[in-house]
Write a structure and sequence with these properties.
This protein has 116 residues and is an all-alpha fold. It is 50% helix and 0% strand. It is extended and about 65 Å long.
Length: 116
């Protein structure tokens, strides 16, 4: 089985975003469930978790470029929020599209050195 030509990370994310836009236009994107009725005065507090992500230098530069581009368009955001937005785009993909997006982004692991 031949693998498709490798795309850059930016192209893979762009393709995922285009697919999401297409699905939203078609009305096939998954909808978030409505909250269950409860006490009217109580809103559930969202708990946040702190995490650290290590990125290759090239991907970090792409993230900074995207942030600057959005800034020029009047959208002020932080890098962490861009990562969260990317995660939410990936969550909406079906299994085959998700596998293709991940395959395009994840670099193969380097070969381990074997001793004779």
């Amino acid at each position: 089985m031949s693998s498709p030509a490798k795309r850059s990370n930016a192209e893979a994310l762009s393709a995922a975003a285009d697919e999401l836009k297409r699905r939203r236009a078609a009305g096939t994107a998954t909808e978030t469930p409505k909250p269950k009725p409860g006490k009217p005065g109580k809103a559930k507090k969202v708990k946040t978790v702190r995490c650290s992500v290590r990125l290759p230098e090239g991907e970090y530069r792409e993230l900074a470029k995207l942030r600057k581009r959005l800034g020029r368009e009047g959208v002020s955001t932080k890098k962490g929020k861009l990562v969260r937005a990317g995660l939410m785009l990936l969550v909406l993909l079906d299994r085959t599209d998700l596998k293709a997006a991940i395959r395009d982004v994840i670099a193969p692991e380097p070969a381990t050195r074997q001793t004779p």
